[in-house]
User: Fold this.
Amino acid sequence: MTETIRLLIAAGASGAWLALVGTTVWAHRVRRAVPLAEGAVLVAHASQTGTAAAYAKATAEALRDSGRQVALTSFAHLTPEMLARTGEALFIVATTGEGDAPDDAAGFLRKFRAGSPRLDGLRYALLALGDSHYRNFCGFGRAFDRLLRDSGATHAADPVEVDQADPGALRHWQQNLRLFGAAVALPDWEAPRYGEWRLAERELLNPGSPGGQMYRVRIEPATAPSEWAAGDIAEVYPGPADRALEGQAALPHRDYSIATIPADGAIELVVRLFVDPSGNRGLGSGWLCEGAVLGERIALRVRSNPRFHTPAAGVPLILVGNGTGISSLRSHLKARPAGTRNWLIFGERDPLRDRPFAGELDDWLRSGHLARLQRVFSRAGTALCHVQHVVAAETGSLAEWVDSGAAVMVCGSVAMGEAVDEALRAALGAERIDALQDQGRYCRDVY
Ligand SMILES: Cc1cc2nc3c(=O)[nH]c(=O)nc-3n(C[C@H](O)[C@H](O)[C@H](O)COP(=O)(O)O)c2cc1C
Assistant:
């Protein structure tokens, strides 16, 4: 491997999963693309939570190891002009929302549709990531493929669609890399390894809540301390760790935003216990909230989520979220050094019982680490009961913060994310929000 990153793929009965382990933490969330050198192949990723970005890095490494020059970039730094000048490209794209493009592709798509560039000189392959539980399976991958072909670009191979990291589809993609000069005998993308961790604490955060039980789950590394960054995602194996630690995972992992920073010495997750009408527990939440006993071994690995890393200290930060979204918002607040300007808008249900991390948040408000803290509750019977209402009521302050360079990060439910997006566009203007998104100053982690 030529880079410090290690890309690992785990083959399991129902899927292969790829993780970035031991990643270097990006100094800046927004990195500029390498200018495309003569003869270089472009590898571009559109990724909401880091998976497509990780596969793109693995793809770029495989090509570089075979002696090809590669320009690796996020869609955030891709322009239609760049594509029009490119002869060969590999696209690795996820789908989010309801068949939508990841946020980092929004600016590119706007420019592409406005400019309708001709791409007659472009030969490409496309890896579309998705999950067939969603109605619009690989919706963005398919739409983007149509867009490219309508613009005159030609397939080097048919698009490969990956359902939850299906290992067969990934091997197919590896085969396609040979069409771009990758070595005939590519080494298999290594089986990923879960790390060994231990369940250290479990605390019910909302006793008596009208909503589902929400737990703080503390998981300590069993061996060496681990590295991660605020905004990263913990992939947890949802069952006894033994077989998963031996590389024999029989179940797909579950994703959780990390609520702590490495200085805390452990990963904490905020997990809502899912219970269906018949009383069955969700696989992941049932395991973390009830199944695993204290002290039990947990198979866990960290996936880097560079789009959602903490902005630089000089950038004021507006955090908006609801429910278990408090998890990554808390990790960002922990990661922000003293003297930074931070504003938290957080929504839950019951004003008495749904106050996760109230002590910490109040302390941050008292110390000035939080310049502003607004908690709203949907069951409070007040006019301002959802976070989007606060956004709408605070237009002046929001504009002032954004004018002074602030970034906006949103974490929590999909419905909340959409309502906040609408409120932000109404408050600050759609163009302003698009520009923030293009600059990496407006990012969402919704699920
Ligand atoms: C909120 C959300 C919405 C999603 N919507 C879709 C969808 O409409 N169609 C689909 O095929 N996959 C959907 N997925 C699955 C992702 O495309 C899949 O997990 C992918 O590997 C994520 O890649 P990323 O980490 O690069 O964003 C969705 C995932 C999330 C979290």
In short: The two ends are 33 Å apart (CA to CA).
